[in-house]
Amino acid sequence: MQAKGDMSRKERRQESYSPLEELRMERTELTQDEFVFRCGFARATYQRWVRGATPIKPTPEQILALCRLCSISPKTLFQRLGFDTTGVPDDLPSHERSLRSDLELK
After folding, report:
1. Which of 63, 67, 75, 79 could cross-link to 88 by cystine, CB 3.0-4.6 Å?
2. This prediction's pTM
C-alpha cells in the first residue's frame, strides 16, 4: 500500500470529492498553496470549502481569477461548482470588462 504522499492525483481525487479541488487538479499544474494565492483565497477558507465544511462563496474578484486560472467561462465554473447558472454569461472575454466595472463601482 502506498503512503498518502505517494498517491497519484487520480487516487487522491477519488479519496474525497470537491468540485473546486477537482478543477484545480484538472485545469492547472498548481499546488494547492499556489492556487489559493493566485485566486486570492485564505488557505483555511479554501480548505473548508474543499472539505465541504462551509459553502463555496467566492468573491467576484476570485471568480474572475478562477476563470482565468482554469481557462473556463463563469458559466462553466458555476456549473462545475453546482451553482444556478441562470443569467450567467457563456464566455468570459466579452463580459470581463463589465464585471470589472461592476467591481470598481462597489
Report:
1. 75
2. 0.69
pLDDT > 60? residue 43: yes
Side chain identity at 23, as an amino acid letter? L
DSSP state of 90: S
In angstroms, the CA 73 to CA 10 distance is 24
Biggest alpha carbon–alpha carbon distance for the chain: 55
Give φ, ψ of 82 to 5 degrees. Answer: 85, 20
Domain boundaries 15-105, corresponding CATH code: 1.10.260.40
CB 1: neighbour CB atoms within 10 A? 3
| Residue-range domain boundaries for the chain | 15-105
- The whole-angstrom separation of Cα 102 and Cα 74 is 15
